[in-house]
DNA sequence: TTGCAGTCAATATC
DNA sequence: GATATTGACTGCAA
């Protein structure tokens, strides 16, 4: 529809917004033959010309700013560099070059001395940096992303983490300078990267940036420069503010009040962050166990029972679902890499495990359900024997185990044989449908009842067990394993192959359980059977 | 309308 | 001070 509209009633350039211009640029590129025929997966010819032309439009990566060619060569330390070359192929090189090219010209490339002519930059720190904000850089990077071969997100983040830690570079700096993201996002990204095939175009962007950055031989130096500049700026500011007496606003973060005027008022508007109490979280988790996709009514009930805003409950479910999903991804990846080489797990393995554990565990429902209860103490007491340990023990044990498929749960058998829905796919689609209508069974009753006192544990046990492992990544992984490696020379393959692993499966199962449950319910109930996944 | 992806930014933790 | 967690928000797609 949009295309039709655009083709028949194009707006004049001057009337277009940045975003609105994008399609026209794309069209132009396409007309020039620079976008290749498909746009996407580009096999053979893609890179070279395309990229160039694209980049020529504007600089792809923010980072460019820190012109550093002149910088000596501390490279020695520059650990990252070494690898890149080996892996890189022509195309990669071109990418890398692209990344760097823009830099010099852009700013102060002049005498090797990064601008930083003053701290003023501080206030608008961003400017120099790259934030993709500007439509420009965004566009070009998008092109790069579109052209990019499949990347090993896990491997990339792993290397980035190594480089950052090895060189004592912070996530914040890296994020703001290289990725145009905040620290929290970077942390999240590095700890729980999603597999390439699961990423949207936008989601791939930071990985492309990271890859390009890794391929940049001067990456570390550049960042170091930035770091120094920042420090200087900070010192200056601090200095001046001090000397100027106190008046200066509290070191309000890097905001850039160009003029004095605004700062104050904002504070007022800020609404306090909601922090859910452990009990509330537990209740929500339990509710999730029983119904990952609660009906509006259920949500309302939960909200009232927990004395939360419905929007909070809704958000919580959204966040929880997507975060659990992500955990599963990394689980898979880890499982996969583990299968082949023990080492790989190092960084993300840790982080992945650690953080998620809390939520992740809950995802089986196991831990969550138990622990929470009302009296933490009581609950805990019980745990030891049961669930609690299940969580811990199972892993190792199961790991050794062969295919969990054998898991006791009769469910498994069933699921295996069936179409088996993708983790969420089915969920989203059909999942919700049946519920609203028929959920009667246990749903609402259960859910609503659940939170507070609840605990029939109905879901928790039954659910988790099964092990249907939705295709999610499996297929994808299999799909096209290497295109990227060849290009970017990333050692590890993306995706997970040996996802046979249990803990993983369990989680998925947990997640899927309710879905399956509903499906079965619906099926037995003669719901038209058009649920295919 | 609903769900999701991707982020931000406030907090918690380390 | 750096990193991790997480509630909320935005934009998009079905």
UniProtKB/TrEMBL annotation:
Cellular compartment(s): Nucleus
UniProt entry tagged with the keyword Transcription regulation: yes
UniProt record similarity statement: Belongs to the CUT homeobox family.
Chief subcellular location: nucleus
Biased composition, class Basic and acidic residues, residue ranges: 389-401, 495-504
Protein name (Swiss-Prot/TrEMBL): Homeobox protein cut-like
MF terms (GO), sorted A to Z: DNA-binding transcription factor activity, RNA polymerase II-specific; RNA polymerase II transcription regulatory region sequence-specific DNA binding
A Gene Ontology term for the protein's cellular component: nucleus
Biased composition (Polar residues): 65-74, 255-267
Domain CUT: 142-229
Chain residue ranges for the region called Disordered: 55-134, 234-272, 337-507
This protein's UniProt keywords: Coiled coil, DNA-binding, Homeobox, Nucleus, Phosphoprotein, Repeat, Transcription, Transcription regulation
Comp. bias intervals (Low complexity): 75-91, 341-358, 374-388, 438-487
Keyword GTP-binding found: no
Annotated ranges, domain Homeobox: 267-327
DNA-binding region: 269-328
Ranges of Pro residues composition bias in the record: 422-437
